[in-house]
Amino acid sequence: MIRPIAIEVALFFAPFAIYAAYLWFTKTPVFDQQHWPIRVLSTLAITALALTAGAFILMVHFSGAPVGSDYVPAHMEDGKFVPGRLGP
Questions:
Q1: 23's torsion region: left (phi>0), alpha (psi -120 to 50) or beta?
Q2: Which three-class secondary structure state does DSSP give residue 38?
Q3: Model confidence at 88, in pLDDT bands (50, 70, 90)?
Q4: Cross-strand bridge partners of residue 75
Q5: 11 and which of 2, 24, 27, 51 could share a cystine (Cβ 3.0–4.6 Å)?
Q6: What helix, strand, coil percent values describe the chain, rounded to 5?
Q7: pLDDT digits (tens, 9 = 90+) for 3-47
Q8: 88 Cβ partners below 8 Å, 6+ apart?
């Protein structure tokens, strides 16, 4: 569960980190407030939300079990533990 959350958080902060790296490489003061105007911040925030939403939709769409599969819960079989699984 940690990995999907970490991916979403990383995708959200990626545009801000890329812009900060751009400022750093161009020898501009990264922590100077005049280089982070509201227009830039809002553009970065919209981009971050779009990346996060797109990744979430792709993760939901392409992960999980195939359509029509049933969950077989964990059970005991001949005295042995059989873990739960998704199967036909």
A1: alpha
A2: helix
A3: low
A4: 82
A5: 51
A6: 60, 15, 25
A7: 889 999 999 999 999 999 999 999 999 999 999 999 999 999 999
A8: 68, 69, 70
Of the candidates 86, 40, 43, the residue with the CA atom closest to the CA atom of residue 67? 86
Tokens 């059970």 correspond to what residue?
75
- What number is the average pLDDT over the span 37-61? 94
Q: Are 70 and 88 in contact (CB under 8 A)?
A: yes
Beta-carbon contacts of 62 under 8 Å, excluding residues fewer than 6 positions away, are none
Q: Which of 62, 87, 61 shows the shortest CA–CA distance to 73?
A: 87
